[in-house]
Amino acid sequence: MTNPVIQVRHFRKLYDDFVAVDDISFEVQQGEIYGLLGPNGAGKTSTLESLEGLRTPDAGELQVAGVDPSRDPRGLRNVMGVQLQTSGLPANITVDEAMKFFCAYHGVDPNNALIERLGLGEKRQTQYAELSTGQQRRLALALALAHEPQVLFLDEPTAGLDVGTRVELHSLMREQKQRGATVLLATHDMAEAEEMADRIGILLRGKLISTGTPLEITATGAGLTKVSVRTERDCLSTDGSGFPAVESRGTKDEYYIFFSTDIGPTVAAIIQFVEAQGDRLIDLRVERPSLEDRFLEITTEEVVG
Amino acid sequence: MTAFLNHFAFEFRTGIRNRQLLFLNYMFPLLFYLMMGFIMVDINPQFLQALIPAMAVFAVMAAMLMGIPAYVVTAREEGIFRSYHINGVPASSILAVPSLTTSIHLLMVALLITVSAGPLFDAPAPESWGYFILVFFAMVVAMVGISVLIGVISPSTNFQVMFSQIIFIPSMLVGGVMLPYEFLPEAAQSLSRIFPPTHAMNAFNGLAMGTNANFSPWGSVIIMFVGGILAFGLAIYLFNWDRSNEARRGHPALALLALLPWLASLLLT
């Protein structure tokens, strides 16, 4: 991890008096997928758009593959591929024309294989306005990838996509990583970030409040593991004493749910108790805290704090 | 260059594929021409002399002022320029390509008018085709510059329509298209000089149609070229990729500098 391709140092972005991004710093290494998470208005899009050269930083230093986005916009175009959250194409441009058009400005041949791969093969002569939202987003992604950029910025890439296309997109992202491309992924989708990102940064109110691998971030929380149990004769309803290491309990549908700080003793005690009561387990599920749980925990702590 | 040609080819096809542009570029000016040829000539037989230049000027003015600013504002509002920006399409190409393709569509319309006006209405053909083309080209340059500048500085479609009409309506009234310059009161004559059609009609009359110009026709040609190039340069300078992006190189009021050549034309004799 010694080759940072994206460098953000003490970056600030203001809109009049409103501080959208407040002195954040992070680096993304070559071949890394970095997830930028945060609720609406956290500063994700301002950060991404400043790195993409669409906005000018008010303070700090940005570098993308050795290029300062606000000083060398032309150099930046050649090293980056972008799928914007909100962007458009002319209503009458066809899929084929769009591919030819943008590839020509990048100085490469049209990448028709990508069009096929993203399921737009039968839509090559269809005009942009006649594509569905998902197809429009797939086309935007194909255009971002067509010139095989060193750095890929994806802003909510799977929003509005069906499951199949989402899986295909994740596979494409892994391929980009394998060929050495660096990916900065801004998303609301915690499951996507957990699955795809090597490291994650959580933005809240313009500040970077947590960074690390998904495992590191989930491990720094209260660490409560969820144990859901269902039995044949509902014996757990009679347990008033509690089990070891259980912080809290609740019910959902026909399940009893226990939040445990130490999973081994808790599960052993539950099984023992059920057997002692002459009951039988129908289902027992153990779920470690997800990134979404930790994200909610962090953002709630910060807001309340 | 390949990228520019590709861009040009796509925009040109769009001008035909897009029904709104097809109407603005072809149907609207041609229908107006037929209406003026059949009706106006009956009401005012003297209009026949000016039918070809007046309808060529009208076609350029209508298609440019109603088509290009709307294209620029809509493309900016819909995030099309953002897509162009991140893919390296330069601002100059974004403004120049639709202007060039519209000019070619208009050249075809002007050709249809000049070829058909004689057989259909007995309208006199230009005496000098070379000068006719030169003046037409000067008018196109002037209107392209003004139209892209309106598109660039208009914050919304409503403003764009208002700015376009501020040029279009007075141009129709006092620009020599409907009523000859010499019939206007002195104050209206002075006012008319800040509108490109006045200069186009003056130059057509003095250089191409074999009739008298009201003031220097070469001066009018120069004013149209200078005015158009200055407005286009200001449009590139003030160009904004993104409606939500505050980073603009200058205040939109700088666009008023584009008036200078037209105001200077008051000195032409």
Could you characterize the architecture of this molecule?
The complex is a heterodimer of chains A (305) and B (269). Chain A is built from ten helices and 13 strands. Chain A has 305 residues and is of the alpha/beta class. In chain A, strands 5-6-7-3-8-9 form a six-stranded mixed beta sheet, with helices on both faces. A four-stranded antiparallel beta sheet of chain A has the order 11-12-10-13, covered by helices on one side. In chain A, strands 2-1-4 form a three-stranded antiparallel beta sheet, covered by helices on one side. The model of chain A has no long low-confidence stretch (mean pLDDT 86). The longest helix of chain B has 31 residues, at 47-77. In chain B, 74% of the residues lie in helices and 0% in strands. Chain B is mainly α and 269 residues long. The model of chain B has no long low-confidence stretch (mean pLDDT 89). Chain B has helices at residues 2-17, 19-43, 47-77, 80-86, 91-121, 129-153, 157-174, 186-192, 196-208, 217-238, 260-264. The interface between A and B is medium-sized, with 31 and 25 residues.
Write the layout of secondary structure elements.
The complex is a heterodimer of chains A (about 300) and B (about 270).
Chain A: E1 4-15, E2 18-29, E3 33-37, H1 44-51, E4 59-64, H2 73-79, E5 80-83, H3 95-106, H4 112-117, H5 133-145, E6 151-155, H6 163-178, E7 182-187, H7 190-196, E8 199-204, E9 207-212, H8 214-219, E10 225-231, E11 246-252, E12 255-260, H9 263-276, E13 281-287, H10 291-304
Chain B: H1 2-17, H2 19-43, H3 47-77, H4 80-86, H5 91-121, H6 129-153, H7 157-174, H8 186-192, H9 196-208, H10 217-238, H11 260-264
List the keywords:
heterodimer, A: 305 residues, alpha/beta, 4-stranded antiparallel sheet, 34% helix, globular, B: 269 residues, mainly alpha
Number of helices of chain A: 10
Q: Radius of gyration of chain A in whole Å, from Cα? A: 24 Å
- Give the percentage of residues in beta strands of chain A: 25-35%
Strand proportion of chain B, as a percent range, falls in under 5%
Structural class of chain A: alpha/beta
Number of helices of chain B: 11
Average pLDDT over all residues of chain A? 86
Main β sheet profile of chain B = none
> How many extended strands of chain B?
0
Head-to-tail CA distance between termini of chain B: 43 Å
Strand-and-helix sequence of chain B, N→C? HHHHHHHHHHH
Average predicted local confidence, pLDDT of chain B: 89
Please identify the structural class of chain B as seen in this structure: mainly alpha
